[in-house]
Amino acid sequence: MSKIQHIIQRVNGLRESVGHYFLFNLEKYVEDNNLKYYKDLKTLYKVKNLEQIEEVFGRFGKMINTPLGAYVEIDNGILLIDVSVDDSDSGLYVHLELFFNKEFDLKERETFLIKELAAYECKETITRVLWQFKTKDYIDSVSLYEINNTVVHREAYPYIEEGLDNYIQKFMDSDETVLIMIGPAGTGKTKLIKYIMKYMSSKMEQISKPANGDSYDTDDNFNRKIFSVTYSTSQETYNDDEFFIDFVRSDNKLLILEDIDYNLRARTDGNTFMHKLLNASDGIVELKRKKIIITTNLENEQKTDSALLRPGRTFDVLKTRHLSEDEAKKLAEKLGKQLSVHKTTNKYSLAEIYTSKVEKVYSMSFGS
Predict the structure, then answer these.
(1) 143 to each of 73, 126, 137, how far by Cα in Å?
(2) What mean pLDDT is predicted for residues 164-172?
(3) Structural contact between residues 187 and 353, judged by C-beta atoms closer than 8 angstroms
(4) Which end of the chain has fewer beta carbons closer than 10 Å to its terminal beta carbon, N or C?
(5) Predicted local confidence at residue 341, as pLDDT
(6) Which of 55, 68, 66, 95 is nearest to 79 (CA)?
(7) How, if at all, do strands 226-232 and 254-257 pair?
(8) Superfamily of domain 145-319 in the CATH hierarchy
């Protein structure tokens, strides 16, 4: 492995797939210009089509198009262009990354780019999900951008008595890091997480405010339209220290760990993951207002390591559940639907109500 690839691996926040596949083709240029430094530009830009990308960003230097992506050669640096698209066919989203050397005036050039690209700045509030997974040799990641329009009605979670917004705000304001959601599949855990992400996105200024009342860091205050989240469902990823180190060092405000039933058991059962989670949630390193949401399909928290549940670390264990018939009717009415089918179980999943595919369930007995 070459020197520049070692440098790329040490850069915090760089997508490993970019480092190992895309930048491999740029190695000579990077080495010749001694581009040891990296900066992730947090602003997201929006353009109409690929032709406009070349028109807008090509004026900053020599643009190179490759089958793996595009980049612009600029004085003492490279401007990487990462393009995403959503399912609304409303345009392309452009995320920029910089590699540069010590001769590069980062503050001056960054200010110049912000000014020159102001007309193309994305106006929507965007959630950036850094989905991490384990390859053979290292943790890789993919950045997914989403305009979060999730709508959740209070009737879907009647057991959250103070209301969803008040509950989420209390979680944000608390000193505790962890929120655990326990409940069977179909009770709305994932949808609730998406709504929490949307709510936190709308409160980004409050999230970023230092707890000690100091002034904002100008770089952290640079762009509040992108709310960054770390996400993974990979067992191998959880067992790698790098996963938690990346989250602690990054500017991502939220870590989401879904369906980790097996990983919540006590450390005395040989659960090495729990050591890492405990250190990340309330260990020797202060998380500075970062939050962790964990979901599990376990029936209760009895098998969960007691250290995770202690006061000061976990804000709440939210037990999601199916709705009763009366509760389901109220939610259906709110959605403009009619719930006319009765179930002998008196249990309605949110998926059934949202999709209007409630089926009658008959009980059976033998020997009668």
Answers:
(1) 23, 12, 20
(2) 94
(3) no
(4) C
(5) 66
(6) 95
(7) parallel
(8) P-loop containing nucleotide triphosphate hydrolases (3.40.50.300)
The backbone torsions φ and ψ at residue 126, rounded to the nearest 5 degrees and listed phi first, read -110, 140
- Nearest to residue 197, comparing CAs of 159, 157, 168, 234? 168
Angle at 195 between CA 192 and CA 199, to 5 degrees: 135
Which residue type occupies 218? Answer: T
Q: What does each C-alpha distance from 100 to 19, 34, 105, 108, 182 come to in angstroms? A: 15, 8, 9, 13, 46
- Residue pair 207/240 in contact (Cβ under 8 Å)? The answer is no
| pLDDT score of 245 | 79
Please give the Cα distance from 284 to 278 (Å, whole number). 10
Residue 301, CB-side half-sphere exposure with 13 Å CA sphere: 18
Structure tokens at 260: 């980790």
Q: What is the CATH number of domain 3-123?
A: 3.30.310
Q: Locate the domains of the chain by residue range.
A: 3-123, 145-319, 322-368
Instruction: State the amino acid at position 24 in one-letter form.
Output: F
How far is Cα 184 from Cα 299, in angstroms, rounded to an integer?
7
Single pTM value for the model: 0.71
Q: What is the spatial distance between Cα 19 and Cα 99, in angstroms, rounded to a whole number? A: 11
Q: Are 172 and 48 in contact (CB under 8 A)?
A: no
Fill in the amino acid letter for 120: Y
Alpha-carbon distances of 94 from 50, 57, 59, rounded to whole Å: 10, 10, 16
7 has a pLDDT exceeding 50 = no
Write out the two tokens for 114: 């912000």
User: Do the domains spanning 3-123 and 145-319 agree at the CATH topology level?
Assistant: no
Contact, 231 vs 130, CB < 8 A? yes
**Which residues is 33 bridged to in the sheet?**
none
C-alpha triplet 362, 367, 368: angle, nearest 5°? 65
Q: Beta partners for 256?
A: 231, 293
Q: Which amino acid is at 230?
A: T
Q: How confident is the model at residue 93 (pLDDT cuts 50, 70, 90)?
A: confident
The full length of the chain comes to 368
H/E element, 231: strand 226-232
